[in-house]
Write a structure and sequence with these properties.
three-stranded antiparallel beta sheet; about 15% strand; globular; alpha/beta; about 25% helix; 9 helices; about 290 residues; 10 strands; binds iron/sulfur cluster
């Protein structure tokens, strides 16, 4: 059994126990997606449903984004709404949950925070690049966290984990649990062999946000970075949108985003992973600075 398998079993056991004892009404975690290299968020209300929970290097969505709707502070639970929700969170997601609670957006006493030590997220773009565009039919991680992929011709390819890690995880200095109600440990996986450097990749590095107008030329103002962010406008905050898609509009949008997320951003990288233009839209003073707090 691999460390990730053990963690998955622990998570399922903890979630089933919390639901069975009525300590919580809902568990928010990740389940397998129908496609390789993906997981998707799931809400579970019955102990029997917890067998679907997984933990892998593809748990990339920041689960904190759902909590303002599930456990808001501005109203108690409506009839039929959950009283307490358990969240199976990565440390960066947990930092967002705590920041949302400090902001008065999420009711901390209605969240049971289970923090799972994070192995780092694998960047599926790097996997695609390493495979030269071959279609992935299936994938899994071994005991060292290395990726085993079955590609379209049926062959099995092993990819070293340390060549695939998402660059937004690289600056994270806090993969241990933040302030939590319960923590689940997981050993470090697959660091780079000494003296070795990553294989050259054709995947272009993401450009950190530059708020001058030239730096905005790649932004298409899709606002995907806002939608996936726990501090985005979807959570009842003032909209920051402008009607157009020119550089000045993009600049105004990002200035407002930075003002809203600076000091709160937990460096989860969810916005960077989703940006179609290869921008890392984390606020300049957010990311790494918040990764310890
Ligand atoms: S700005 Fe990006 S990295 Fe920061 S909390 Fe929001 S989604 Fe995560
Ligand atoms: S996701 Fe990327 S392209 Fe879309 S608004 Fe954000 S920075 Fe711009």
């Amino acid at each position: 059994m691999t460390p990730l398998d053990r963690t998955r079993r622990q998570i399922q056991h903890v979630a089933a126990g919390l639901l069975h004892s009525r300590h919580v009404d809902l568990v928010l975690g990740y389940r397998k997606a129908g496609f390789p290299l993906r997981t998707r968020p799931v809400l579970i209300s019955q102990p029997s449903g917890t067998a679907a929970l997984v933990w892998s290097s593809f748990c990339s969505v920041n689960l904190a984004v759902y909590l303002p709707a599930l456990v808001p502070t501005d109203s108690g639970p409506e009839p039929g709404q959950p009283q307490v929700v358990a969240v199976l969170a990565k440390p960066c997601d947990a930092r967002c949950v705590l920041a949302l609670s400090r902001q008065g957006v999420v009711a901390r006493d209605r969240v049971f925070l289970v923090v799972v030590r994070c192995p780092g997220i694998i960047d599926w773009r790097k996997v695609e690049d390493a495979l030269g565009g071959a279609e992935v039919l299936g994938a899994g991680e071994d005991a060292g966290g290395n990726l085993h992929v079955v590609v379209e011709d049926g062959s099995d390819v092993k990819l070293p984990r340390w060549t695939l890690e998402d660059e937004t995880c690289g600056g994270c200095r806090d993969r241990g649990p933040a302030d939590a109600d319960l923590t689940i440990d997981l050993a470090d996986l697959g660091s780079a062999p000494q003296g070795d450097s990553p294989l050259p990749s054709r995947v272009p590095g993401r450009a950190r946000l530059a708020l001058d107008q030239g730096g905005m030329s790649r932004c298409i103002l899709c606002r995907a970075c806002d939608r996936v962010c726990p501090f985005g406008t979807g959570n009842g905050r003032k909209p920051t949108d402008g009607p157009g898609a020119g550089e000045a509009d993009a600049q105004a949008y990002h200035l407002a985003r930075v003002a809203r997320t600076a000091g709160l951003c937990c460096a989860c990288g969810a916005c960077a992973r989703l940006c179609p233009s290869g921008i890392d839209p984390r606020p300049p003073l957010g990311g790494e600075a918040r990764a310890t707090g």
